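Example record for the data management plan.
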Amino acid sequence: MPRASYRSADVDLMARMMRAEAEGEGKQGMLYVGNVIVNRLVANCLDFRGLRTVRQVIFQVQGGNFSFEAVQKGNVFYQRARASERRLAKQTLDYWRDHPAKYALWYFNPHAPCPPTWYGQPQTGQFKQHCFYEPRPGTCESVYSG
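Corresponding structural encoding:
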């Protein structure tokens, strides 16, 4: 059973986002971005309450901006999905999770050392240029079971 319900269009959308956000960090980096997308979809807590589709996660607006920089700036996100990224997207939707993004709901590239917390959320680790953060204990238990 997959971690989240999805359609073919969701796989394409997710593949485009994974590539746009982490192509420079290789397949592993793209898988971590996919983890965060699926985690936001299954979390139903904090800033991600009520998100039910991959499309809602990808195009979520917070504070007047899209949650993902690639949607805001365009770049690679608006190119067609490639087969290799589609496979990675499907893999994260179906089952794949790994540290440091296993339970992460946020990531960013600080262009500096990763801060130990980000908006009060603890850092779980770093992969290349991206820092990953999961919710504080007791604030979003559904991300750990989804």
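Summary line stored alongside the record: The beta strands are 61-62, 65-66, 106-108, 117-118, 121-127, 130-133.
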